[in-house]
């Protein structure tokens, strides 16, 4: 007998995600030991050799729970038992900036980046599912975010690849069970103190009950459509930015005023970030205020932006400079 439908679906997704990786390269699976990442690890261990690739894994110990180091070691042993090599256990130093979820995510990517460089891997596979994508879209809606945030997680982002974004969490759970793997159930995933947990266990089930089944798939599909739109607008803005920049941090008003707001504000945001304003702190409200130097100009003074960046209109030019 061949693999179950769930196992076949996961393997097929992994195979497609690795199709362009050069023969002999090392790919790493980021594995927490949970259901989704174990299903991804098992599929990668099966598919990578058939593609002429080496497959390893990284498990991150965030140090946020009792016995977290022991749990990470157990996960590493499981990963080695299914044929992944090398397998690394890395400790993340989690700060506090941005709240616990954001801080843990930032620390996790930092150690994954370091492990990738150390091992010489060509890419890292992440186990985000269609359900994760739907949660991300809802969280973006709650924040009042724009198209880029509502486009969710990209299938490929630099060295990171997400093969499972089109698959529901139930499929991954079935594939994990088929492989005979015993996943670790993170208590944070059911802790209502975390916003994503409330979305997962309260908001999405309520939407499913009130609006009918298919909400998760619809949200994920919306993310795909919005990503295409955001990519097109970003490309348009890059071209306009190159045309209107007289010098670093100096933008021609005459070029910008003829552009749609969605393009114009992307140019202004990129210029502010280039001048030294942190992307994580530069809000939509800041960008709208810069935009008013174009659309509602009446001689107002400079604007103060995060990162000690000032934005001002000087005649027919928008100037963004970092203050000493």
Structure description:
By secondary structure, this protein is an alpha/beta fold. It folds into two domains: 5-128 and 154-188, HUPs (Rossmann fold, 3-Layer(aba) Sandwich); 248-322, Uridine Diphospho-n-acetylenolpyruvylglucosamine Reductase, domain 3. It contains twelve helices and eleven strands. It has a six-stranded mixed beta sheet, with helices on both faces. The chain is elongated, with a radius of gyration of 23 Å. The protein starts with a helix and ends with a strand. The model has no long low-confidence stretch (mean pLDDT 92).
- Portion in helices: 40-55%
Structural class: alpha/beta
The CATH top-level class label of the largest domain: Alpha Beta
What's the number of domains?
2
Low-confidence stretches: none
Write down the CATH topology of the largest domain: Rossmann fold
H/E topology pattern? HEHEHEHEHHEEHHHEEHHHEEE
> What is the CA–CA distance across the termini?
70 Å
Summed over residues and divided by their number, the pLDDT gives a mean of 92
- Taking all Cα atoms into account, the compactness measure Rg is 23 Å
Q: What count of helical segments does DSSP give? A: 12
Q: How many beta-strand segments? A: 11
Walk me through the topology.
Layout: H1 5-17, E1 26-30, H2 35-50, E2 54-61, H3 68-81, E3 87-91, H4 100-119, E4 123-125, H5 130-143, H6 147-150, E5 156-157, E6 160-161, H7 169-178, H8 195-211, H9 215-244, E7 245-247, E8 250-252, H10 253-256, H11 261-274, H12 284-295, E9 303-305, E10 309-314, E11 317-322
Parallel strand pairs: 1-2, 1-4, 2-3, 4-6
Antiparallel strand pairs: 5-6, 7-8, 8-11, 9-10, 10-11
Helix pairs in contact: 1-2, 1-7, 2-7, 5-8, 5-9, 9-11, 11-12
């Amino acid at each position: 007998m061949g693999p179950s439908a769930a196992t076949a679906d996961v393997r097929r997704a992994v195979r497609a995600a690795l199709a362009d990786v050069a023969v002999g390269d090392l790919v790493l699976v980021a594995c927490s030991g949970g259901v989704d990442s174990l299903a991804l690890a098992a599929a990668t261990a099966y598919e990578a050799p058939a593609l002429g690739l080496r497959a390893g894994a990284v498990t991150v110990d965030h140090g946020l729970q009792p016995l977290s180091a022991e749990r990470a070691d157990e996960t590493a042993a499981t990963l080695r038992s299914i044929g992944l090599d090398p397998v690394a256990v890395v400790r993340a130093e989690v700060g506090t900036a941005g709240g616990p979820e954001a801080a843990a995510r930032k620390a996790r990517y930092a150690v994954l980046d370091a492990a990738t460089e150390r091992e010489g891997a060509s890419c890292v596979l992440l186990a985000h599912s269609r359900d994760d994508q739907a949660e991300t879209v809802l969280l973006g809606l709650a924040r009042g975010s724009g198209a880029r945030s509502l486009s969710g997680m990209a299938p490929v982002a630099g060295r990171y690849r997400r093969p499972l974004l089109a698959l529901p969490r139930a499929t991954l759970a079935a594939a994990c069970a088929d492989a005979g793997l015993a996943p670790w159930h993170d208590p944070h995933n059911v802790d209502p103190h975390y916003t994503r947990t409330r979305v997962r266990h309260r908001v999405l089930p309520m939407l499913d009950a009130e609006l009918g089944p298919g909400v998760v798939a619809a949200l994920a599909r919306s993310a795909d459509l919005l990503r295409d739109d955001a990519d097109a607008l970003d490309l348009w803005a890059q071209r306009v930015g190159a045309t209107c920049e007289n010098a670093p941090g100096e933008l021609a008003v005459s070029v910008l005023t003829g552009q749609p707001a969605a393009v114009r504000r992307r140019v202004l945001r990129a210029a502010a970030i280039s001048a030294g304003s942190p992307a994580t702190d530069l809000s939509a409200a800041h960008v709208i205020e810069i935009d008013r130097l174009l659309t509602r100009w009446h001689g107002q003074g400079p604007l103060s932006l995060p990162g000690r960046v000032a934005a001002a209109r000087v005649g027919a030019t928008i100037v963004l400079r970092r203050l000493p």
